[in-house]
Amino acid sequence: MTDPSAELTLTSAIAELLGRARSMPDHLANIGNAELAEQVAGWAETVAVNDAASAAARTAGYLHYDNDGVDDRWGRRLTRNNLRTLGILDVLRMRAIPAQFPADLAAYLAGPPIPSEHLVVLDARLPVDGSHEISGWQLTQPTAADLDAVTPLPSSSQFATDPWDPALRLGGCCVLRRASNDLQARNPSVWGTGILRSLFEPELVIPAWEPLLLLNLAQAERVIVAAEYEIEPGRMVERIRGTGLDLMPATFDGIEEFEEPGWGPCRLDQQELAAVLRFTDIMSPLLEQWQAWQSLPQTDRNRKRAKSAGERLRRSAHRFLALGPRLGSDGDVVYERDRAEIIFWYMSALENLLITERPDGDFSRKVAQRAAILIGADDEERLEIRQAITQAYGVRSKVAHGDLPPDQLLRILPKPLYVYLRRAFRNLIILGPLFDVAAVCDDALMSAAVRERDIAGPVRLVTDQLPEEPGMRTWLRRAGTPTVGPGTHSPPPPRSPGRM
Questions:
Q1: Between the CA of residue 176 and those of 62, 123, 313, what are the distances in Å?
Q2: Do the domain assignments include residue 285?
Q3: Buried b (16+ CB within 10 A) or exposed e, 111-142
Q4: Which residues pair with 261 in a beta bridge?
Q5: Which residue, 79, 176, 205, 299, is most buried by CB atoms nearer than 10 A?
Q6: What is the pTM of this model?
Q7: What residue spans carry the region label Disordered (predicted)?
Q8: At what angle do helices 209-218 and 270-288 cross, to 10 degrees?
Q9: Does residue 130 sit in the same domain as residue 105?
Q10: Domain total of the chain
């Protein structure tokens, strides 16, 4: 709740500060920023602005600092640092102060609270027109004007340090945006919020994991986070993860060069993007059901089951998405030394999805059989999936015990496992959080009718609506494929593109 008298006092204090600046234009023009910031920070008018801002912020309930009762402050203060970095000194030097500046400065210092926003920059060329919703996030390409509208103190931003990475500022980058009530107003950390979170987060947190997962399921190339920002519009922009995309030279005619974002392997045209968005439109409501347990009453017996399933899906999705930066085109591994570890984490994610009962051992057999039943298109493919996953468990065991897995398995397993895990995600999302993975998949081993009724049939009702996608390939054995171990064969190269 705001207090009009406190707001009026702050407005008057800001006017006094601007009045002093107007009274000494020659002095301000002939002094460097570092020295001027030192002087302005010590002006009586600046101290009065800070005191008034603290009082107004207190009445608005905005940005409270309580250092164990030692330093009980509200709102923001004008400091030597933000006088320089936010362009305030340059505004003070102007003979005609922008009309919006006093209001911008008052809101920056004293609030009131407003909704904040997450913005995630994608390493993918997605030529989206306008805005498209995916699992509660808006997929869009922001312009420079869109960025300026939420940059701190918009009326002085032309003089300020630009908080956005150069590729995002250039344009053409695709982002996911969502308003959030989870973010509290703050000042950017001196040490960098990204560094602090990396040090103290117990596990990696990917705020936009739902739309990121769907974008990675909708087509074959990995889509990863290039940068993540937290935004309090008009007051704070902080990049908390990533460095953004590099700018790369490009040319249309081989002579004249220009710069564009250095996207990774996911570079879609309009037709391909339309197919991806059709996929996300169909799958988003199904994925949202995995969080619907929060609306169930505490007495509902399905609440605990649905919550447990949702947590398993989230953890597996995080493990899968975290491997994206190590992948190149078509899900292949960039660096040879990463192959064993990637197989390890693929199997961890798959096991987390498919072992839903109380653990009692025999994980290799259970995961291999359940994955084969869940995603296999026919008997031949189910046998191949079981074989590949059994081999992957052998690699995982060797990695866990410090042994060196066979080079041939390290070469051939990552790509089929990438496909299998994505198909498992897709099918489980379709089947829903109350699908009993252990009971149904184990029964389906013995009964084709159960498999058709409880797995293949429901999945087909959705996949028949999805666009054809070349990344979700099936793997067929070919006669004469070299054996990897006694009685086993390696997964062969993919056949022609087909459904996931």
A1: 27, 11, 21
A2: no
A3: beeeebbbbbbbbbbbebeeebebbebbbbbb
A4: 247
A5: 176
A6: 0.88
A7: 477-500
A8: 130
A9: no
A10: 3
